[in-house]
Design a protein that fits this description.
Structural class: alpha+beta
Bound molecules: zinc ion
CATH architecture of the largest domain: 2-Layer Sandwich
Radius of gyration: 29 Å
CATH topology of the largest domain: Alpha-Beta Plaits
Largest sheet: 14 strands, mixed
Number of domains: 4
Number of strands: 27
Strand content: 25-35%
Low-confidence stretches: 607-617
Number of helices: 16
Helix content: 25-40%
Shape: elongated
């Protein structure tokens, strides 16, 4: 048995552990910035261990890595058993101890050499190279944490492709000509030119918008236009609901499968557009090639929703101190079904114990204080990985449900649709149907050619209002329009704006009167006629509501009416709202509470149409 080396390094930093944790525990980026070579996943891995390789000064190191253990924001640790190279074993542990308002960062390594070479090389390398390199990165992170924002780290930058600068200049001009915000265009060009590899590998528009301090929607629109212009490419990541890693990747929506298998969790999962499909971008390889590289595969920030993870032997229990943000959590074991609900609240208990056992988890919710001592216990006869995770999904992901419901996406990527026959849940959408009042009479009165022009103009007006309110026009059917919105208030505002403009056109243009229905509920996405479309009872109900209109008004369901933003808007806009007494065709057995928004330009039932008669109040 050879002697084991123990290195203990410490740095006193000014930022508190909470501010340092997201940086220090991002081991993938840390390793890249500290100059640690990239790792490669070996095809053969033991269950529960990842086999990895790395090339260091001409030597290939191969090892099996145990799952990381951590308790945010205080400690993480990992152990490796080597199969080749100068080391036999290594354990790494980083502790972030609060010191006044700052942190004492203690970084320890226990390394067992595999032979003579290791006995000579390890102390030299660790003291002369690793310690100063790690110290420099930790101090840089302290600066970033003190400044309160994450900067683009100055890692290794890939060179641009030949002719890229000219292309960037052209693309920049094209984007500005498409009336996109010039400053944002410049920011994005700067990102493509200057961001480090890790940031460029996976551009997430909302996270970028948050960092730039600007509107998320604007940055998403910009990224979509930039993709069309050849600056970026996008892909759809299918995220595992358990580890939230991207387990399926597709360049097109048609490649998004409903059933995906996660190797790390050994589960099959069902994809839904609202949570598990994320749209991410990277530079177009014609401008800048970004190789997908990894420097660490299992660190705490790979799964930032997991605040604590511990590997426990049979019968083992372990207490960890945690600092938790308020919200909903769950304790579970990696390999077993179910879990125990936990809520973190100022009034919660300062400590609690959670035991994984073959009988499963208790159904009662545990309420924990933000600073809590949590004991994990394994009552299985085999080892278990226990973890505490936040149940909310990241809110800075651009989900497929969201992006496919935007006008920009539908306009720029009209051919992006699901594989024929595939149906995917998109969560709840607000569905708007409109129709033109007495269009047959209009055709008769003004002639087909002129009437057709008027109908086209009315589509343009509707589309403009829909896009202005973050909705998307899905299709037109005759004189009717189907549009979708994420928020009910957007649908109501868009419709009433378009309805007013069409009923009271400028000059002597012929007024046109809209009928409209709005409903909010779960929808299914499908591909119809090569385009992304929606179906389900929410869509059917919205279309039936149109028939209950007299013209110039809007009929909506109680799901829309009771939405807080809709209530606020209708009150502020001083529109009258009345109950509608009617049964919906085909939905006899279901009771609907329906409401009509009465506008100043509403047409009374049976009104004649030399131009709509309007009721003023
Ligand atoms: Zn997984």
């Amino acid at each position: 048995m050879t002697r084991e080396f123990h290195f203990r390094w410490q740095w006193d930093l000014r930022s508190p552990p909470e501010a340092l944790w997201p940086l220090v525990a991002d081991t993938d980026r840390f390793n890249a910035e500290a100059g640690v070579p990239e790792v490669h996943r070996a095809p053969r891995s033991e269950p529960g261990r990842q086999r990895l390789t790395m090339k260091v000064t001409g030597m290939t190191l191969e090892w099996d890595e145990a799952p990381y253990e951590w308790q945010a924001p205080r400690r993480f640790a990992v152990e490796r058993v080597y199969r080749s190279g100068p080391m036999a074993r290594m354990r790494v542990q980083a502790d972030l101890e609060p010191r006044g308002t700052g942190t004492r960062l203690v970084y320890q390594l226990w390394m067992a050499p595999s032979g003579l070479l290791g006995r000579i090389v390890i102390p030299l390398r660790m003291n002369l190279l690793t310690k100063p390199a790690f110290g420099a990165v930790f101090r840089k992170y302290d600066e970033i944490a003190m400044a309160g924002k994450r900067e683009e780290a100055a890692g290794e930058r890939a060179a641009l492709e030949p002719g890229a600068e000219e292309r960037l200049a052209q693309i920049g001009k094209a984007l500005r000509d498409a009336s996109l915000d010039a400053e944002l265009v410049e920011n994005l060009l700067g990102f493509v030119r200057g961001s480090d590899r890790l940031s460029a590998m996976r551009l997430r528009p909302y996270a970028l918008a948050d960092r730039w301090g600007t509107s998320r929607r604007k940055v998403l629109d910009l990224c979509l236009h930039a993709t069309r212009a050849g600056l970026l490419v996008f892909r759809w990541d299918m995220l595992c609901p358990s580890c939230r890693g991207a387990k399926g990747i597709s360049e097109t929506l048609a490649g998004v499968k409903r059933q995906v298998h996660c190797e790390s969790c050994n589960i099959d999962f069902e994809v839904d557009f609202e949570r598990s499909v994320e749209l991410t971008f990277r530079p177009n390889p014609a401008v800048r090639k970004v190789d997908i590289v990894e420097f660490c595969v299992g660190g705490p920030r790979m799964t930032p929703h997991i605040v604590a993870q511990q590997v426990l032997a049979p019968g083992e229990s372990r207490a960890v101190d945690l600092a938790l943000a308020p919200g909903a959590y769950r304790v579970r074991s990696r390999s077993d079904r179910g879990g125990q609900h936990v809520r973190v609240d100022a009034a919660g208990a300062p400590s609690a114990a959670f035991a994984a056992r073959p009988e499963g988890w208790p159904s009662a919710e545990t309420v924990l204080a933000p600073k809590a001592a949590v004991t994990f216990e394994n009552r299985f006869p085999e080892p278990r990985i226990l973890l505490l995770e936040r149940t909310a999904w990241a809110d800075d992901a651009v989900t497929a449900a969201e992006v496919t419901g935007t006008q920009t996406f539908r306009d720029l990527f009209a051919r992006e649709a699901l594989r024929p026959g595939e149906e995917i849940e998109v969560g709840s959408l607000c569905v708007l149907f409109t129709d033109l009042l007495e269009s047959t009479r209009m055709y008769r009165e003004v002639g087909d050619a002129k009437a057709f022009g008027l109908v086209m103009r009315h589509f343009d007006v509707l589309k403009r209002h829909i896009a202005d309110h973050d909705g998307a026009l899905v299709k037109t059917i005759g004189d009717a329009v189907l549009a979708v919105f994420r928020r009910p208030v957007s649908a109501v505002r868009a419709l009433l704006g378009a309805s007013r403009e069409l009923s009271r056109p400028a000059g002597d243009a012929r007024p046109m009167v809209l009928k409209a229905g709005v409903h909010f509920g779960p929808c299914i996405a499908v591909t119809l006629n090569d385009r992304l479309d929606y179906f389900g009872s929410t869509v059917n109900i919205a279309s039936r509501l149109v028939g209950l209109c007299s013209g110039g008004d809007l009929v909506m369901s109680s799901e829309v009416r009771r939405d807080a933003e809709v209530e606020g808007y209708l009150k502020e806009a001083a529109f009258g709202v009345e109950d509608v007494k009617a049964a919906l065709k085909g939905f006899d057995e279901v009771r609907f509470d329906l409401f009509r928004v009465v506008t100043p330009w509403v047409v009374e039932k049976g009104g004649e149409s030399a131009g709509p008669k309007t009721k003023r109040f």
